[in-house]
Amino acid sequence: MHYESEIREPLVLGNKSYSDVTRDVAAPVEGKANKMWWFAFTLATIAFLWGIGAMAITIGEGIGSWGLNKTVGWAWDITNFVWWVGIGHAGTLISAVLLLFRQKWRMSINRSAEAMTIFAVVQAALFPLLHMGRPWLAYWVFPFPNNFGSLWVNFNSPLLWDVFAISTYFSVSTVFWYVGLIPDFAMIRDRAVKPFQKHIYKIMSFGWSGKAKHWQRFEEVSLVLAGLATPLVLSVHTIVSMDFATSVIPGWHTTIFPPYFVAGAIFSGFAMVQTLLIIMRKVVNLESYITIQHIEMMNIVIMLTGSIVGVAYITELFMAWYSGVEYEQYAFLNRATGPYWWAYLSMMTFNVVSPQLMWFKKLRTSIMFTFVLSIIVNVGMWFERFVIIVTSLHRDYLPSSWSMFSPTYVDIGIFVGTIGFFFVLFLLYARTFPVIAQAELKTILKSSGESQKKLHKHE
Amino acid sequence: MSKKLVHGLFDDDDILMSGVKAVRQKGIDIDEVYTPFPVHGLDKAMGLKPTRIASAAFIFGIIGFFFAIWLTWFMMIEDWPQNIGGKPSFTWLENMPSFIPIMFEMTIFFTAHLMVTTYFFKNKLYPGSAGINPDPRTTDDKFLMEFFVDGDTSNLEAILKDSGAIEVTVKDIVEEEKRNLWFKLPPKSASVVVILLGLGLSSCSSDEPMREPVSVYMPDMYHSVAYEPYSEDPNGINSMEARTPVDGTIKRGYVPYDIPNTNEGYQEALMNLKSPIASNDENAKYGEELYNIYCISCHGINGDGQGKLVQNEKFLGVPSYAASRLPNISEGSIFHVITYGKNMMGSHASQLTWDERWKISQHVLKLRSQLK
Q: pTM, whole model, 2 decimals?
């Protein structure tokens, strides 16, 4: 058995045994939902229903019900798409990249972060689907012969790369998540008393038994999936950025986009993880597992990626000036001083200035501050996408085509609806799934648990 | 003597590990160990072979990689080459850079999904597979060693007790229990489901194809309030939505071509139209490059009418440029045909400028001279 240095803070607080971990993780599934949960669930469902209505209007009436016009042909839909995909990135980063780096602190947050990934990608996928106008023909984006004649999809198009990237990302993340869930479902199955519950978890646990050979394969599969998911997650936002970077719109046509988008995605994703987990640890009593240390670690990641994003913004400005390209220069001048200056200013303050506050230990270990900042960061990242997309488009090459974008109630309805849908899924998840990867967490209990650390302190 | 099932239950992973080692030292094989979490080093201590699932994953990745190469090659190069933005469409290698994302994603897709499928298959994990850890406590905090023993078990029991097992149980093996099916429908409800399914499916069939929908569920933007461009407009000039430009308007950089698209026009171009551009190597080379993008898919690289789409029988009847097949063509008539199209061939005037069409004509004549 290997013991960790006592200087390292314990990752599991309190005097927890293996059985305590089991009980704490199973408690929200076995217990009854409290009033707060029902309140949040009702609110999310109402928002979701509004979204469904707005989607029905979009499909029934057409894209004309959105605020788009001839000049700004992409606005909230693609902004929301990129925003949601970006949020998803943190989940994979926590579960895959931190696994490869053997970061033990990932173990109590990876399950929920991955759930967040999957639910966020579902929201993201809705937007391109709706913008197609005829979502029942969505399968045409896959390599079928067009109209079942023989013309094929165009593999030279970044939008088609996106189809492949997002569907691979979604399906691989789901599988990765589920492989990890199986042993934990088995734990709930073996504890379940009610026959219906036992039956459901029996199906979900795929008959897991915890044999030594299965665990051996489990660890190998997790490692390989982590190795696959790491380049995958980087490729997804790279390809999303290519939707813009391969076109010739000033403000989009830059080579800095892929790394800049990936950093932004991780930045916003970690902020969303903070928002969700700060609430969840309180509501389902997981403060011993999701500790201040976890929150601080994530805040450091937010600070780092926020700084990368800040450097990217400044690089963009510098390159616009240094390139000498008139249109590029105008695009950036217009962003900062044009009619959308308020969006640019929000983006700069929320994304560049606010994460720098994390340099203060007092702030990055404050739960309230972290919670507020995590929301600010996500608002800022939404504005970043809005700024990139709308301010680049609204000033066309022809001044006669210049226009503004204002969302209709349908645009707003769909966006709010996806937020509702996301929380509906997450709240259902929090009540029915083991929210902490308890099997994995038990492997570090002896090396990183508080009581065990004390035990070995003077050995 | 009957076979016996021996279970040794432990409540700590470190004690379990030393127990496994102690049992193995006595030369007894452990049939199975059930643990609530992966205990590191347990597989080695039990003498399990390392898993080969990572090697399998590597093979799956290679399959995915080559599948993507085949997919992009077949669809974009072989079956139906498309002219996209005037880039060469007839070699996979030159198009490869824009296929890299597809190759990458397919490699990951195949590796991940086939590996996990293998993992489920080898572990016999599937929805409804009955949970088979003999003691439900082994998913909580207990660890269980399992032995199938012929004959005397007292020795083994003693070893297990000595190495710290909290419980040792011995059972005679009874016949294997019937496996539980998770999806068991009584025959009555099954027949109801079948009848309902049948009724549902029967509503899809009809003797006559439906010509018009009975009611429009989602009107699909059929009823546009605004006037469509180029549609009738009672308020517009000549009842048209679009306005006609001033007579004789041409767009910038456009060279008008006055010969009409008629048989007479064709004869006129054939006899009298002469190329205004110089016949030199530079023009010929440029013409060849354009030809290899815009014409090659049907006319073939040699101009023999055996392009990829002809070979794949997407289009038929593309003639060779050879004098034996087309005795009567000139640079003027070639220009005329590129501009207006002929028979199955469409007009290329929107894709190729005036001087580009002349350069291609020059290359076509060169190909014609090389054909028998």
A: 0.82
